[in-house]
Amino acid sequence: MSILPNKSPAAATLDPIVKAETILVSIPFEGGGTPPWSFGGKPRNAFDTLLVRLETANGHVGWGEAFSRNEDLALKRTIDTRVLPLVIGRNANEITRIKFDLEFQLQNFGRIGAIIYGVAAVDIALWDIAAKKAGVPLVDFLGGSFTSELEVYASLMRYGNCKDVVRITEQAVSRGYRYIKLHETTLPEIKAAVEAAGHAAKVMLDVNCPWSVSEALRYDKDLESLNLLWFEEPVWPPENYVGLAQVRSTGRHRIAAGENAGSLHDFVAMIAADAIDIAQPDVAKTGGVTELLKISALCEAHGIEFLPHCALFGPGQIATMHINAATRTTPMLERLYCDFEAELFGGNNLPINGKIIVPTAPGLGMEPDHSVIAKYTVQ
Fold first, then answer.
1. Which ranges in the chain belong to alpha helices (H)?
2. What is the pTM of this model?
3. How far from 7 is each of 3, 4, 60, 94, CA to CA, in Å?
4. What backbone torsions phi and psi does residue 335 show, to the nearest 5 degrees?
5. pLDDT band at 7, cuts 50/70/90?
6. Burial of 188 (0-12, 13-18, 19+ CB in 10 A)
């Protein structure tokens, strides 16, 4: 007869985080144009992925991603010194509690931006760990899949001339994309792309918040005949929801916004202002998987289309795939239109004919290629 040790349920499920680190990877790409971001610096044709890697006492490893651009070592250091020290020793099973504690303790450092990006990365990594422990892909851990593959839309660079925008639009169509998003801000290029897409692809426009309300209203009118699928972030600043609502009130376009939001409550405010038809939270910016699930439910309750932003190529992109597949409306996946010098996931996350297979392995279902990390890590 043996006597088993008396372990409490809490002790049985304890799995403390023993290691937390960031890894900043920057991989060159060819996109045929200028990236639509600069963030105070010179735009460059390389893409950052700021990885967060968590490891538990029981040997479980989870990968997350914080939104990053332009070899942002300052962002990396902020997450290293402010966010990750608060994660060490915490029970990896307590995903929502860890997220709340991080946000509450660090609220004075901002409710959007570097801190929340770090919180988002930690949250994604914790969901990766949890699904791995359960032995199921994240989509199943979120309640099950509505689809095995997702429609992908090509989110183009900014070209600034008609010749290139037509060439790239036609190329994207030839690769099987049926939906194309532009980042042009001038009418000739926008019209040229719509004509090039013809009946083969529907076109959306994201202008990245360049205009006053009066300017946005003028463009809203000028663009009406193009039948754009949606009109994204036409008003500066992005939190000017009243101004955005003025553009939406014309009824000429469906208005999309949200990639610059930090939490559920930003979307509550957008909806209260009648500012959006389409909500676009970014899993690596807007608090991770936990927050996107809340926003998805909010959108469903208010009849707003939930369509996550995804200018990501790391664990954040893979997490978005699982979230979209677990959503009844199966939102399209955004993919920036560029060809990389090396693929972080060995090419397993590349779309084929405008569609992508949702991973079926446990957790996120894809692991970063360590040889790519070693070659492209920013020191």
1. 9-13, 73-78, 95-105, 114-134, 138-141, 162-174, 187-197, 213-222, 241-248, 264-272, 288-302, 315-325, 370-376
2. 0.95
3. 12, 9, 21, 19
4. -140, 120
5. very low
6. exposed
